[in-house]
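User: I'm designing a mutation panel for Iron-containing redox enzyme family protein and want to avoid disrupting the core. Could you give me a predicted structure to guide residue selection? Please restate the sequence first so the numbering is unambiguous.

Assistant: Good idea. Sequence first, for numbering, then the predicted C-alpha cells:
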Amino acid sequence: MSHASTDRTLAPSSVTMHSLYNYLELKENIFMEHLFFKQLESLNSLSQLAPVAQKMAFWVLSFQDLLELNVRRIQDGSLKKLLRLHQSEDAGHEEWFLHDLDVMNVEAPGIRSLYGEKNTPVRDTTYEILAKVFEARSDHERIAILLTIESAAKVFFSKISGFSERLEASDKLKYFSKKHLAAEESHDSLDNEMDELLAHMWMADDKKQVVHRIVDHVYINFSNMFDHFNTLLTIS
C-alpha cells in the first residue's frame, strides 16, 4: 500500500480526517437554510422547477469529469481503488438528469446555451470548484473536495426528493427523485471502508486549516450557484 500523500504513518499530531465530518455537518446545516430550499417548499408543479433544471446542466454534465480528474490524482493505492468503486456507482446519473428534462418537457441546452451569457453563473461556480482539484497538493485535500461535494449533494437530493414526492412525481423522475436519494444513501459498505481509511489519516493543525478552507470554498460556490437558481424559480 502506498502512503505517499495520506500521512498515515505520522504520529497523531492533531486529529484525523474523519473529524472533517463534524465540520461538514455544520456546513450542511447552513446550506439547508438556503432560500432556494425554502422557496422549493412553495412550488406546486414541475414546470416551476424547469428553468432551474435546464440551467443545472453545465454542472451536472461536468461533474463526472471533475470526479475523474480528482480521483486520478489520488496517490494512495487503497484510497484510489475505493474511490474508483464509488465513481462507478455514480456513473450514468447525467443520463437520469437528461431523462428528467424530457419528463419536464425541457429542451436539453445546446452548446450556444451552455456557453452563453445566461449560463455564466453556473459555469463560473463549476470552474471555481474544479480549480481546487488542480490546486490540491495532497490526498487530504482531494478527499476534502469529494466529501464536500457529497455533503452538498446530500442536502440537495434530500430536499428535491421531498419536493418530487410531495408532487407525486417521484416515480416518473430519476435524477430529481427518491431513486437518486436512495442511490446516494446506498454506499454503506464503501462508506464504512472510507471511514476506516479516514480514521488513519492524521492531520496536523496546518493541514486541518487547509482542508477546512477547501470545504469553505466549495460551499461558498454552491451557495452562489443556488443564489442564481433561486432567481430562476417561478413562484406562483
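For picking mutation sites, this is relevant: The beta strands are 15-16, 202-203. The chain has twelve helices and two strands.
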